[in-house]
Please model this.
Amino acid sequence: MSTFDRPALGGRMRQYELGEYAREYSDQPPRVYGLDQAIVIELHGELDLVTYQRTVSLLDAATTGSEPLVVVDLSPVTFVDCSGLSLLLRIRRRVADRGGRLRIVCSHPLTLRMLRVTKLTSALSPVPTLSAALNEPHDHGAA
Model:
């Protein structure tokens, strides 16, 4: 059986425990809504493996629409790990595959640091506010 480290909870986690962990430590689910010819995906809490598994199908559905701009708002996000980065890159690829544009809203210093350390700042082009994401010129930071 595969296991995952769970140091904050004092041990290892088996695959079947992920569902239990998600129920026990669940964050608010993503909020998806339309705004100014864009679809906005507002993520909350921790962006980690559990969040990835819980939200990937919802986010896949949200990124198949015809809106020319998809904005992922990370303002309410408190933590991002490699699974969270993978989720953001998945969204970026899906939006680019259909010819759309992606904007990331992020001003949290630790999340911005994670993007810089992993050299994803230029690929994801974070902006500090939702307003900036909606008003950014179309050719800058295209997906």
Q: What stands out?
A: Confidence is low (pLDDT under 50) at residues 1-11, 21-26, 139-143. Helices lie at 17-24, 49-62, 82-97, 109-117, 121-124, 130-135. The longest helix spans residues 82-97.
